[in-house]
């Protein structure tokens, strides 16, 4: 058994210790907002927060989260009122939308530590989160908007 907190709720799962957190979230807990992209921690689609830090859940063994706190896109804001979620809509960021939960979770860690990031700060922090549709300029605009309005 592995026990940890997910989106503020203590959960226990009976899985092998090396099971990727991504699959525990999606298959065992039904939290499907976190996406599988590459399986090697290179694309960012599976980004969640572990004790407030962005991590790639596809490469995080569930044993590493024992006793810790995980936040998924579902836990960022239950009603979609997080400044990043609102900015994503206002800036019309998503095209296919597949990478967006990972993009938002990565951006949230930036804004948590830097309320007014420069464009360069944003580009550096978001490096490694891949958008196959190429909406990078809209992603940057949304993060800038969220920093102003959040």
Order of adjacent strands in the largest pleated sheet: 2-1-5-3-4
Q: How confident overall, as mean pLDDT?
A: 97
Rg measurement, Å: 15 Å
Weakly predicted, low-confidence segments: none
Q: Give the class from helix and strand content and strand pairing.
A: alpha+beta
Q: Strand count, sense and closure of the main sheet?
A: 5 strands, mixed
* Topology order in helix (H) and strand (E) letters: EEHEEEHHHHH
Choose one word for the global shape.
Answer: globular
- Strand tally: 5
Helix content: 25-40%
Strand % is 5-15%
Q: How many helical stretches?
A: 6
Q: Span between N and C termini?
A: 39 Å
Describe the structure.
With 150 residues, this protein is α+β, with helices and mostly antiparallel strands. Helix content is 37%, strand content 14%. It is built from six helices and five strands, in the order E-E-H-E-E-E-H-H-H-H-H. Helix 3 crosses helix 6. The mean pLDDT is 97.
Name the descriptors.
alpha+beta, 150 residues, five-stranded mixed sheet, single chain
Task: Give the SSE layout.
Elements: E1 2-6, E2 9-13, H1 21-28, E3 47-50, E4 53-56, E5 69-71, H2 73-76, H3 83-90, H4 100-113, H5 119-126, H6 136-149
Parallel strand pairs: 1-5
Antiparallel strand pairs: 1-2, 3-4, 3-5
